[in-house]
Amino acid sequence: MSIHRGGVRRGGVIIKGIDFYRFLIYNPYNTVSLVFLGCNYVFLLLIEGVYMRKTFNISLLLRCFRGAGGDFSSVRRLFFIVVFIVGFFSQVHASAGFGDTETHWANEYITRLESLGAALPKTGNLFMPDDFITRGEFCEMVNLSFGLSEYTEVYYSDLPLDDYYYPQIAVAMQSGYLTGYEDLTVRAYDTLTRAQASIIVARLLRLPHAPGAAENFTDFSDIPVWSLAAVESVIASGIMQGDHGVFGASDYLTRAQAAAIVSRALDYGETLYSSLIIDSDYGPADGVETINGDVYVAKKDIVLQNLIITGDLVFVDISGTGLVQLKNVVVYGRIYVEDRLDD
C-alpha cells in the first residue's frame, strides 16, 4: 500500500485540519484505488463504486462541518472493512475482456493498457473505442499507464473536490503535463483534440523539439501555432501519426486513438527515458551530449558541461558549502533541490 498525504485547497486557502489521502492497494487480480478526505468532524460518508473489469475504483468522501462530533478512528475501521469487501467483490466478478474491441484496429493497444489497469470500460463491459475521449479520461489513462500517483492540491471553478476526476487532474498537474485555463477552469469533461493530446504527450515525455517534422502533412497550415512544436515532437518520435497525409490537429481524439498514443508513449519511455545519478564531473569537452531523462546530482564541487537534459535536473543531499557549476547546460524539465534521494 502506498499512501500520499497533502492539504486541501479551497478558494486558494489551505483548510487546516483536513487531510487528503490517496490509497493504492494491489492484489494479483485487480487494483483498488481509493481517495479519501479525513477530518475531525464527519458529516457524510459517500461511497461510490464502479466495477471496471480488472480495476475497481472507489472514492470515499468525508464531508466535514464544524459543531458535530466524529471519531476518525471509526472511519479508519470502516475504511479497512470497505477494502476487504471491495477486494472480495472484484475477484469474484472479474470478467474476461471488452465486448467491442476484439476486431477493432486498436485492439492490441487497448488490450495492453487493459492489462495495466489503464483501459477502463465506458459502460458495462464496453470500451466504446470510437467514442471521443475527454481531458479527464485521457489524464486517467496516462496516470494509470505510467503509474503516476504524486499529486498537488488544485482548485478550479469547474472541478469540485468530490469530482471523480479531481485526483486524476491533481496528479496530471503535479506531473507537469496538464495546465488549466485563464478563466480558472480545467474542463475535465471537454473532449480532447489531437493538438491538445500532442501537448500532453510532449510535456509528459519531455520530447525534444523537431522543427519541420510536420511540414509534409497537407493540413500543416491548419495546425495551431500554440501546438506546433508539440505536434512536431510527437510526429518525429512516432508517437502520433496522421491519416492519409492529414494530421487533423483540431479533430477530436477517439478512445482507440488515445490507447494507441499512450501505448506508443510507453514504448518511447521504456526505450529512451532513464535517470542518471552524477557524483563527479560530467559532460563532453567538445560537442553536446543529450540525456533523455532526469539527472540527479548527488555531490558538491563538481562541473556539469555541454549537456541537454530532457528531464529534470535534481540536486540531492548537497546541503552546506560547495558549488555545482553548470556550463552550457540546457534543461527542458524542472530544476530543484531534494533533501534526500529515495531508493
Would you mind describing this structure in some detail?
The protein is of the alpha/beta class and 343 residues long. Among the domains are: 1-96, no CATH class; 274-338, no CATH class. 27% of the residues lie in helices and 23% in strands. The chain has seven helices and 14 strands. The strands form four sheets. Strands 1-4-5-7-6 form a five-stranded mixed sheet, with helices on one face. A four-stranded parallel sheet has the order 8-10-12-14. Strand 2 and strand 3 form a beta hairpin. Helix 3 (135-146) runs parallel beside helix 7. The chain is globular, with a radius of gyration of 22 Å.
Gist?
With 343 residues, this protein is of the alpha/beta class. It has helices at 72-92, 107-115, 135-146, 166-175, 194-205, 228-236, 255-272, and strands at 2-6, 9-10, 13-14, 19-26, 31-38, 44-52, 55-63, 274-278, 289-291, 293-297, 302-309, 313-316, 324-331, 335-338. It is built from seven helices and 14 strands.
Amino- and carboxy-terminal Cα gap: 17 Å
Tell me, rounded to a whole number, the average pLDDT. 74
Question: Can you list the strand order of the major beta sheet?
Answer: 1-4-5-7-6
Which H/E pattern describes the elements?
A: EEEEEEEHHHHHHHEEEEEEE
Strand content: 15-25%
Radius of gyration: 22 Å
What is the overall silhouette?
A: globular
Helix segment tally = 7
Task: Tell me the helix content.
Answer: 25-40%
The main β sheet shows up as: 5 strands, mixed
